[in-house]
Amino acid sequence: MSRGSRPSALLVVLVCLIAVVMLVPVGYVLSIVLQVGWSTLAPLIFRPKVGELLVNSLLLVGFGVPLCVALGVGGAWLVERTTLPGRRVWGVLLAAPLAIPAFVSSYGWVSAVPSIGGLGGGLLIATLAYFPLVYLPAVATLRGLDPALEESARSLGLGPWAVFFRVVLPQLRLAVWGGGLVVALHLLAEYGAFALIRFDTFTTAIVVQYESTFAGPAASALGAVLATVCLVLLVVEASTRGRARFARLGSGVARRATPARLGAFAPLALVGLALLSVLSIGVPVASLVRWLSVGDPWSQRELPTSIIQTVLLAGGGAVAAVLVALPVAWLSVRHPSRRARVLEGATYVASSLPAIIIALALVTVTIRLVPALYQTPFTVGLAYVIIFLPRALVSLRTGLAQAPVALEEAAEALGHSLVSARLRVTLPLLLPSIGAAAALVGLGAANELTATLLLAPNGTRTLATQFWSASSAVAYSNAAPYAVLLILLSVPAVALLFAQSRKRVTT
Amino acid sequence: MSALSVSGVSKTLGGIAVLADVTFSLPSGTRMAVVGASGSGKSTLLRLIAGFDRVDAGRIVLGGRVVSAAAGASASGLAEGGIDAGGGAAAADAAGAGAGAGAGRGGGARAVSVPAHRRGVGYVAQDGALFPHLTVRQNLRFGLSGGRSAGHSGGLSGALSGGRAAAERRVREVAELVALDSGLLGRFPHELSGGQQQRVALARALTPEPGIILLDEPFSALDTGLRAQTREAVIAALEHSGVTTVLVTHDQEEALSFGHSIGLLTGGRLVQTGEPSAVFDSPVDAWAAEFLGAAVLLPVEVVRGVAHSALGELPVRHDRSIGGARPTTALLRPDQLRLMADAGANASAANAVVLEVTLRGSHARVTVRAGAGAGAGAGAGAGGDARGVEIDVRVPLAEAGQFARGVPARIQVTGGVVVY
Lengths: 507, 420
Hints:
Chain B: InterPro entries: AAA+_ATPase, ABC_SmlMolc_Importer, ABC_transporter-like_ATP-bd, ABC_transporter-like_CS, ABC_transpr_FbpC, P-loop_NTPase, Transp-assoc_OB_typ2. The complex is a heterodimer of chains A (about 500) and B (about 425). Chain A is mainly α and about 500 residues long. Helix content of chain A is about 75%, strand content about 0%. Chain A is built from 24 helices and no strands. The radius of gyration of chain A is 24 Å and the shape is globular. Chain B is α+β, with helices and mostly antiparallel strands and about 425 residues long. In chain B, about 25% of the residues lie in helices and about 30% in strands. Chain B contains eleven helices and 22 strands. In chain B, the strands form four sheets. Chain B has a six-stranded mixed sheet, with helices on both faces. In chain B, strands 12-16-22-15-14-13 form a six-stranded mixed sheet, with helices on one face. Chains A and B meet through helix 20 and helix 21 of A and strand 7 and helix 7 of B.
């Protein structure tokens, strides 16, 4: 219980400071609009090229999100609530595509089907790469759902389909909305996957602009539009999510639901899942295996350097993100208040902007205000912190919630000072979530492409940038070892998320 | 000597007065239960004594040492005023209050707040607050390594300064005290049942031999059966160790059966303290009477020590009316009522008429109306309501057959009444 306990001024100041830094990209977008002025921006925004990009991006989101939701929810229901043969295996296979970065998957497809491209190609690749972002929260919700609800509905005379649509689906709303938003933001932010198949979106266009005119008004104008679309999505999601509480009421542990019998649908479901797995995992992996056997790609000189640099950059980013997330999580868990929610929310808003916007903002701010920091590892680390902070926050919040003040008080009553109580009780309880937070951020940072390309010092080689330079030069065989390493790096994070989604806890 | 003395303590949280002018003291080696509804401030009271929160006014003295005192000279003055003000309410129960004023007087004008870890207080939280990452043994040993200053008895300093052997000895001692199987010492908290967890929590609090133990609704999270059983075990362990204890609870039964004294907390005020049986026998007001257990309240008119009611003339056991006002209400406990069927031979003795009989499995509940001219002797000088009073009476199942709607009956009252 933290009633009556007020956060120290130092903590509040620190978190305010963090929120301000996290909001730099948002401020950057606003300042473009204000500084450059509407008269300069309008002609840059209202031209056929931008219209085309807008249509592409909106179609991508408009089709991609529903597809991902259908695949994610359907998959989760099959795995969690039916008698489908091999449910455990399918459960893993449905989460597995998350371990293949979208641009690696795109590389697999484009090298297998060179003619792939356009909206159709982009949709295919992106949907296959991102549907697990809906699948995982849907699994978590289904597991936390009290089967008594479904049983009550059955006893009230609803058939299995009616139960699914009228009871289960509404409960999945939070998972669907949240997952859908994450998919939409990923679709808008993705660069590599679409650039490889030459499908133009805002993000790819911004990078192209940046490469030709640096952070000029043209890139800024596109960035402002992209950021606006993202922020609109955030607001739409927040205002339509609803306030209903769907968590299980009452105490005790929910029983396992009685799984539905699929009957004649079983073969159909199996074929569907098999096809999904072949397309989402099989094709990219097969391409990789093929390219690995061409020549001697493992003997590239740059391989060891890029591994070391990736570890250093991603590790630094992970440590920094944990250090930044800790005070924010502490304030919001230990001293919950409106102010804490606003400050925490600010960090989420910043992180929902595409990496390209965050990178552009940091380029502009460092050059104008602190040139010494331009293209330094510090700036790359800062970008990683801004992009991946929510991953660390979510982990640390959960950890802190499991180390309640009552335990510190118990330790104090047993004669330990506050410092000693925190060291001996709170810290050990927090360690696993600190580890998880660092792992999630570090592994994400190791895969990060856009911000790293823009911000890293000249000569920096990470696995992602090396993979990118090789594959965009159509040196597919040279790219393969990096792709393998990127996948291996992603596996632990995905395993962690997978395990979390299967814990029978609703949060 | 009093182990704990609380005088004039007030606390405001978020602009709301949670505790107002609370005063009581607890002789060494006794157990007190503070009972109050949720939101009455009882947990806050424990947190102030434990040192998790600071007092806004008043003073707390533990074992002769001032551990909490609000700043300013007004604090001690307020404390004494508090005793006077509370005197009216606690007139019959002043035994404790007097001792409280004496201990640790002269806390001074400076604010005092000894941090929780230097108070020598054992605290058991509602859910036990066992450290989930430590085994039962490590939990029990936790308080032996805290560097708490001088212990309260010889055995402790041995365990504190002494090595692992002494610590292990103490761990086994307290485990035995709370009847905890030594095979459980290697387990983690989540591998224990709720009742076992609470016993470990108590043992952990007892390990460093604190001057006082504070229990914050330690049984409320347990199922009914387990609850009674755990409560027995805890009382036995406390009795055996002879430690001064304060329990807060919302459960009247629990409070009445817990210890040597009971305190009634409502709206942040301690309205009555005293021996459980004394408080139950003579609650300070009608609210307290109903809060402590099932009560029948009758309108009455008191003439020369006799209460005239719908049930006839009842002797007054205690007059709780304030400052000479005429008492208007009498308190009866259901145990005092006995319902008898009117056998016809003695029809004039009937003072009630049966309205409804409800079978309740083990017994029957008979609802009667008394004092509405149901019988000859009824109604004389009753509360003035011509429709009489409805009363529920518990009747043994074997006798329930004698009653049916409309049947005249007689309510016999044993023992006197308390009037307000």
